[in-house]
Amino acid sequence: MLAAGLKPFACATVAGVVLAVTSASYGANPFITSIYTADPSAHVWADGRLYVYPSHDMDPPRGCDLMDRYHVFSTDNMVNWRDEGEILRASQVSWGRPEGGFMWAPDCAFKDGTYYFYFPHPSGSDWNKTWKVGVATSSKPASGFTPQGYISGLGGFAMIDPAVFMDTDGQAYIYFGGGGHCQGGKLKPNMIEADGAIQDMTGLVDFHEATWVFKRNGIYYLTYADNHPRENCMRYATGSSPLGPWTHRGVYLEPTGCDTTHGCVVEYKGQWYQFYHNQAISGHGNLRSMCVDKLNFNDDGTIQTVVQTKEGVPAVGPAPTPDLNDVKYGAERGVFGNGAKLEDDPAAPGGKSARELHLADSYVEFKEVSGGSNGGRATICIHYATAANAKLKLFVNGIDYSFLNTPATGGWDEYKGQAFLTVPLGAGSTNTIRLAGGYGGVNVDYLTVTPLP
Q: In degrees rounded to 5, what are phi and psi of residue 244?
């Protein structure tokens, strides 16, 4: 649902990239609404963009057991976000739990031309006793990742949530922990082996999980979630070295209304930000959504309490100039089944819309969809209207990509909504996209398909 005061979104293309574009100067919280994302880990890389590496709550959930399919999102102005697509799933992890799932809070680091993606995953069916920290690598920040195994000596009972901090001298440190136990240590230059002993992080008060470390003005900060079920707060501690000892400083992020809390701190274009998650869209603690708000410091370096907002943060750069040459597929191009139908719709910009998608097993299917001359990653953006929160199940070339949320737009004739996901497409006009209904009413005006670079 759009936050109060925001202007409608529209999907548009800028230099071949689909973006969620708004003319408003503020974003919205949650800032990713199409799928459920949690445990954000944000970094600014050399291309000037800010990238967020979250976990992915699969819908429908089974606790947190089914979490899988890591996606990456990026921005250059904190308001317009690009879905970079999926980078890793449990079925690609050869050493992992045979039943899959349990792809929990990850992180990413960069060194000497390589991006290192760190993720917690059990190696056995007895999941909470067999956690390991896996590593995948790529020469690009948001695609092409290949699993490289796991870091020997890390993990064990409830030891999750890896976070990697790169100090200003080039030394990398890794942190992880859960169940009241936080540890950290150095990484070797190859970034996939521990360098020396892993040690306990001392001085933390009421530690639960979600470690994050950053440095500002010579002070090291360690943030984490505390132990208050359904009322978790984010606390922080400071130190004069990256491995402590740490001095507890208190709570800086109050409960977000979610069963859990998890976040990260990053500076971008002169402003510090707190990323976190809540359950504002779903109302369920295991279907979470990422948010971001400003983080400010006092003169002595202590952190001010973060003000959680629905409006999000202001833009720190211009909105992209839309290039409307993306490939558009109007509802009239669809093939309808099981009660879904095409109707004249004066409110729809295209003059017609796909309707009756609330019916069980209903669908609209678009055939001969172009994936460009070479195929590859492409963003599918659905333009819709609905009076109440609903969702559509997305199938591309017969592959089930699960649900796309379609939050309420204010009415059945309010075509302000857009839901998007980046998926791989085949080359040429060989692709088929099916939107399956039966999960609440939603009227579809058209969809756009835009290959990413």
A: 80, -165
Task: Give 215-227 pLDDT, tens digit per residue.
Answer: 999 999 999 999 9
The pTM assigned to this predicted structure is 0.94
Distance of CA 402 to the CA centre of its chain: 15
Strand stretches in 188-226, DSSP E = 194-200, 207-216, 219-226
Count of Cβ atoms closer than 10 Å to residue 386 Cβ: 25
Which residue(s) pair with 379 in the sheet?
Answer: 422, 450
Q: Which of 228, 202, 209, 222 is nearest to 161 (CA)?
A: 209
Distance CA 411, CA 388 (A): 8
Q: Is residue 381 a contact partner of residue 447, using CB atoms and an 8 Å limit? A: yes
Q: Output the six-digit token pair for 161.
A: 């949530």
Q: CA nearest 449: which of 436, 431, 384?
A: 431
pLDDT tens-digit series, residues 307-359: 999 999 999 999 877 655 589 999 999 999 999 999 999 999 999 999 999 99
β partners of residue 43: 51
Alpha helices in 186-271 (DSSP H): none
Please tell me which residue in 39, 76, 161, 293 is annotated as part of the active site: 39
Say whether 365 is catalytic. Answer: no
Find the catalytic residue in 83, 161, 209, 445: 209
Q: How would you classify residue 195: left for phi > 0, otherwise alpha for psi between -120 and 50, otherwise beta? A: beta
Active site residue 356: no
